Amino acid sequence: MPKWIPKPEWIDEEVFIIGGGDSLRSFNWSLLKDERTIGCNDAYKLGEETCKICVFGDARWFKIHKDSLAEYKGTVFTNANQLFHTNLSWLWTLQRQVTGLSKTRLGWNWNTGAVAVNLALLLGAKRIFLLGFDMQISKTGRANWHSVKGTKPNVEAYSKFLMGFTQLSIDLKTKFNCEVINVTDNSNLDLFPKIACDVFWKERTKV
What we know:
two-stranded parallel ribbon; seven-stranded parallel sheet; globular; 4 helices
C-alpha cells in the first residue's frame, strides 16, 4: 500500500520529464517551477517546486535513497516489483509491464525515463517534453547531471534504453493520443521530434 489507480489528474496538460543526462548539468531549473514535472530518480533532490513527481524503477536505487526520499515533499511513484506490496504510506506503486506502454500498469523498458513517459500518459498529458534524455556519455565522460566526477558510467546500458524506447514509440501511436518532443541537445534518441534546448525555452518564455 498504497496501490495507485490511474487517474487523469493532468488531463490535456503539458508535462516535462526530467531525465538524468549530463546535458542538464547547467540547466536553469527555475524554468520548471510553473510547469507540470516528473523527475527520474535523483531529480527529487531538486525539491518539489521543480520536481513535482519523482518516479523510479530500480529497487537497488531505492535502498540508497530511501531515507532522503522520505523527506521529499512531492509525490513518489514506482513500478519496482519488489516494492509493489510496500507498506510505506508515501510511496505509490503500480504494477510493472516489461516492455511498451500500458493504460493500467507502468512500462519498464529497462529505464526510468520510459516509466516516466508512461506515468505522464496515465495522468492525461497531451504533450510531453523530454529533458536530459542524452542516451549517451557526454564528452566529459559523465552519464548524469547529478553524478560525481570519477563515477564510472555504464555505457552498455544505453543500447537497452534505446531498444525499450523503440517499443514505447510503437505503442504511443496505437494506445495514446499524445505528442512527445525531445528537448535535449545532442540526444542519441531519434524516435521523437527534436528541438534545441535554448530555442525551445526562448520561444516558451516570450512575453
